């Protein structure tokens, strides 16, 4: 990375640094120290902690349990997402949980000179932050020492977070009778996030890169996540879990590929991220423009004006016409705009100044913006839209607009038609 790239990234990250400070994130991950990115990921967690983010770590220990059971000559069965944990299995399971906890604490306690952990001084807190109960017998299957969550103790967790510690949750839960139960770490992460009212729940997962490469949506609402057509069953289960969590009040759930180094930081500190986000919020927000948006609109449309794609508009013109403009926002940044000039007597409106930031032109933002403005035109009783263009006629034809004669435009528009520009008129019936 050259100095300019670094400056650009750092400046883009700055709003997210401000926004995330003081927020609570729950991070679920497969605690596999054979993964070459595991140590780097934990060092990234220490970095998040140093930026004022309150972190709760929930490690999954399935692989360590499998290894310990195999070493002891034992094997276990699964029913759904639950391991059937026999009493004979518990020493191996408890050993797996303890060894993972110690390995995480050791990694976060590093402070070697010239390492990412230099001067980090991270404090880690772990303990009996949840109460467990036996899962019991489900559909005739006895789950023995497999448990479920009885209660999360959010105040205890918040106290340690307020004391600037990273909280480490354990996959072993304790009952009121003092017994140890093996719990599902996915459920621990979801229940903890809901209990402490976390701002984000993050899953480091498999198959995310393949999902993104296959051009599936990066941002989903709960309904879309629950009905994803992606063929991988495991990832679909995670998407369904994310949907459930969102409906429990967690604003955003992120799925990030666990095999990609630095994906956690890229997801949190870049505008487009590197993962899948499930949110009940409207991530891309379309709203009427205000006078405060004029500088941003000018920056967005100026390059297209210089190319002759858009009609040049002065600041004064924009100030007069701002009530006709709409802007598409992403994380408080204007990424697209368009104007809708109604002609009520003719039951039509002019679509004008449709512009999308270059980095978003491959993500169907123009289609979304067009569709939303068509809806708004219909809602006020308009029957069609028209536009004038010099270079983008084919794009509009592909979306249902047809060429018309200048004489078919509203009379007022005909009177103001710029013949030197020689724009082609198009119309679409709504």
How would you describe this protein?
It is a single chain. With 430 residues, the chain is α/β, with parallel strands linked by helices. The protein folds into 2 domains: 3-279, Carbamate kinase, CATH 3.40.1160.10; 284-429, Gcn5-related N-acetyltransferase (GNAT) (Aminopeptidase), CATH 3.40.630. Helices cover 37% and strands 26% of the residues. It has 15 helices and 23 strands. It has helices at 3-20, 38-50, 62-71, 90-108, 154-162, 185-196, 208-213, 222-226, 233-247, 263-269, 294-306, 315-321, 365-379, 393-397, 411-415, and strands at residues 24-30, 54-60, 78-79, 82-83, 123-126, 130-134, 137-138, 141-142, 147-152, 165-168, 172-174, 180-182, 200-205, 219-220, 252-257, 275-279, 284-288, 325-330, 333-343, 348-356, 384-389, 402-403, 424-429. The strands form 6 sheets. Strands 5-10-2-1-13-15-16-14 form an 8-stranded mixed sheet, with helices on both faces. A 7-stranded mixed sheet has the order 17-18-19-20-21-23-22, sandwiched between helices. Helix 3 crosses helix 4 (90-108).
